[in-house]
Write a structure and sequence with these properties.
heterodimer, A: two-stranded antiparallel ribbon, two-stranded antiparallel sheet, 10 helices, 4 strands, elongated, B: 166 residues, mainly alpha, 2 helices, 92% helix
Chain lengths: 332, 166
């Protein structure tokens, strides 16, 4: 009974924006579908002003939420878990189990913190962007040159917020709504950052496991066949086929290197594309049909989870492959 | 790059964010939870081992108990068999005694009966003799002396005896 009540309440929450939003005249403000994150305010640090984007601001909220959750869950650790501790344990146990299955017990210890942090951070940031009402609440920069557009209600609050948050940005020539909260996953800076962390850590773990020289010579600079050729030459029975094989290996090594680099790109744009597109779809659906966002919300929740899972899982798999002795052969 | 909003400051900020989160979570979440999970795993393993040992012990005790029970049962059975045997013997002895007594009593009774019958027969014979004598006296009145008479009657009786026996 209680469960049905929750579902109805959630349904109502998701339903309401579809009813209400189209009733307002929002023509005057371009809907926020810019790839570039909006600047909320500038932070003065040691004389230089750092522009703080809403995605950066939100990633701090995400971190705060995760850390608060972790603190709440581990506040009273006991061998017989209850409440939040149970939830946290379940999550950690599931991710750790995944690591153990993929990489074995010893490597799991190494990979687990990165994989788990990626999963949690991406998951929370994906889902945070979906909270209804977060998108439409924000700042529309107004000043003397750009007065508040017709049809938009300006609260005195928005002015004071402007003053509070510092100077306005001249590049906003259109009246663009800068939401306070925007999923960090819709910011390429985050996705590139995570992709770089994932790949760099993968390479570092690989070099740690196989040794720096061996790692590079096994995966990217495969000159083993030339060595064999010179050995056979020294023995007086040169096998010229080995030269051809060596050249092939060199080419494969180059491809391997390119594929490593392209992983960064695929990591970056997979997460960004899925989440950004999801938010655009939700925005469009809100104005399209009353019940549409309801369906797409469930879908985007699912996508948000899957993308977090995929990012973490691929990181885990790449790390496992990189630390496996004959990684190059198994990997395409 | 600028159009996509990519800039080094934000990129570095996000990387630092991630590193910070990784560090903090490792300290406050992963380590304690994994430690707890390990401790719990050990505890459960210990409990299971203990339960297993207790179970084994219980099984052993059960076996011992069963063995003792079986022993006791066998002992009781043996005792019962001995008792039954003794009882049987006793019964037989008593029965034999009873039979013996009964037989003796029957024999005695038979002897008595036989004796009495003989007595009676003798008496009867005496009386018959007497009666016959009287009767004959009456009939014959002193025609015969007593001695001849008696012989006569005795002969007659002997005849009847023989007849009675046949």
């Amino acid at each position: 009974m209680k469960r049905w009540l929750y579902i109805i309440i959630l349904g109502a929450i998701l339903f309401v924006p579809g009813f209400i939003l189209p009733r307002f005249d929002v023509k005057a403000v371009t809907a926020s579908v810019a790839v570039k994150p909006e600047v909320l305010f500038e932070l003065e640090l040691g004389g230089t002003a750092f522009p703080i984007s809403n995605t950066l601001f939100t990633s701090w909220i995400v971190m705060l939420l995760i850390i608060l959750f972790a603190i709440a869950a581990t506040r009273k650790m006991s061998l017989v878990p209850g409440g939040l501790q149970n939830v946290l344990e379940m999550i950690i146990e599931a991710i750790y189990g995944l690591c153990e299955n993929a990489a074995g017990a010893t490597r799991a210890k190494k990979f687990f913190p990165i994989v788990a942090t990626i999963f949690l951070f991406v998951l929370v940031s994906n889902w945070l962007g979906l909270i209804p009402g977060f998108g439409p609440i924000g700042i529309i920069p107004v000043d003397a040159k750009h007065p508040a557009p017709e049809g938009i209600a300006t609260f005195p609050l928005s002015h004071s917020l402007e003053e509070f948050f510092g100077p306005k940005h001249e590049e906003h020539h259109e009246y663009v709504l800068a939401p306070f909260v925007r999923s960090p996953s819709t910011d390429l800076n985050l996705t590139i950052g995570l992709a770089l962390i994932s790949m760099i850590m993968t390479q570092i773990f690989g070099m740690q496991a196989l040794g720096v020289v061996k790692y590079w010579f096994v995966r990217f600079i495969m000159v083993g066949k030339f060595g064999e050729f010179f050995k056979s030459l020294a023995q007086g029975k040169p096998k010229f086929g080995l030269i051809f094989m060596g050249l092939l290996d060199l080419f494969v090594g180059v491809l391997e290197f390119i594929s490593e680099v392209s992983k960064i790109l695929s990591f970056t744009f997979r997460l960004f594309g899925n989440i950004f597109a999801g938010e655009v779809v939700l925005l469009v659906m809100t104005f399209l049909f009353v019940a549409a966002p309801f369906i797409f919300y469930w879908f985007e929740l699912f996508v948000g989870f899957i993308q977090a899972f995929v990012f973490a899982l691929l990181t885990l798999i790449f790390m496992t492959i990189a630390t496996t002795a004959h990684g190059a052969e198994e990997h395409h | 790059m600028e159009a996509l909003g990519i800039n080094t400051t934000w990129l570095l900020a996000q990387i630092i964010n991630f590193g910070l989160l990784l560090f903090i979570l490792s300290r406050i979440a992963y380590k304690p939870v994994l430690d707890t999970l390990n401790t719990r795993k050990q505890k459960i393993q210990e409990s299971l081992d203990y339960a297993e040992s207790v179970k084994k012990q219980a099984a052993e005790q059960q076996k011992e108990f069963d063995r003792k029970l079986e022993e006791a049962r066998r002992g009781a059975q043996a005792a019962a068999a001995v008792a039954a045997q003794a009882g049987e013997k006793e019964r037989e002895v008593i029965l034999a005694q009873a039979h013996e007594d009964a037989r003796k009593m029957i024999d005695q009774a038979k002897e008595q009966i036989e004796y009495e019958r003989k007595q009676m027969l003798a008496e009867l014979r005496q009386q018959v003799v007497q009666l016959s004598l009287l009767a004959a006296q009456k009939v014959v009145s002193q025609s015969l002396d007593e001695q001849a008479h008696r012989r006569l009657v005795n002969d007659f009786l002997a005849q009847t005896d023989r007849l009675g026996k046949n």
